[in-house]
């Protein structure tokens, strides 16, 4: 089996969370979804499990972080600056909060941060392929 990541996130409203993640480009995998959780697929290796608070409580007794706190920031690479902006626009139109941190503009890299409706931080970003591969210097 290839290496994969499954990010588990507690959500207060499963239907709202599923709609948000679908709007920014994730696809629901119904084989691993039910009334207490939804598997949302980003790629062949990246899955996000949206879990109701009751379902989350079956995995841990640790408290769910309060809104406005940051337990983790998850970055997703995209193919272009325009794709980053489209992700952010879709997030804002579907219950997310956009630009929760300053926009990152480094010439060879561009990124913005959003939160989902449950305040989980996502950072869509683009990096110049030559800079990312090491085949060329970062663009100015």
Biggest β-sheet description = 6 strands, mixed
- What is the CATH architecture annotation of the largest domain? Roll
Would you count the extended β strands for me?
Answer: 10
Text of the CATH class of the largest domain: Alpha Beta
Q: Determine the CATH topology of the largest domain.
A: 2,3-Dihydroxybiphenyl 1,2-Dioxygenase, domain 1
What proportion of the residues form beta strands (DSSP E)? 25-35%
**Averaged pLDDT:** 93
Enumerate the spans where pLDDT stays under 50 for 5 or more consecutive residues.
none
- Give the termini separation: 40 Å
Number of domains: 2
Q: Percentage of helical residues? A: 10-25%
DSSP summary: helix tally: 4
- Rg over CA atoms, rounded to whole Å, is 16 Å
CATH superfamily of the largest domain: 2,3-Dihydroxybiphenyl 1,2-Dioxygenase, domain 1
The topology string of helices and strands comes to EHEEEHEHEEEEEH
Q: What would you call the shape?
A: globular
Summing up helix and strand content along with how strands pair, one would put the structural category as alpha+beta
């Amino acid at each position: 089996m290839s290496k994969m990541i499954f990010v588990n996130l507690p959500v207060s409203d499963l239907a709202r969370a599923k709609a948000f993640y679908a709007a920014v480009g994730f696809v629901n995998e119904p084989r691993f979804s039910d009334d207490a959780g939804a598997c949302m697929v980003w790629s062949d290796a990246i899955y996000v499990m949206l879990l109701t608070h009751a379902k989350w409580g079956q995995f841990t007794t640790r408290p769910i972080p309060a809104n406005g706190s940051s337990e983790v920031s998850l970055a997703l690479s995209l193919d272009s600056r325009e794709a980053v902006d489209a992700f952010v626009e879709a997030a804002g139109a579907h219950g997310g909060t956009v630009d929760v941190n300053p926009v990152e503009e480094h010439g060879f890299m561009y990124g913005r941060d959003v939160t989902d409706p449950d305040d989980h931080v996502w950072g869509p970003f683009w990096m110049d392929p030559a800079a990312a591969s090491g085949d060329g210097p970062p663009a100015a």
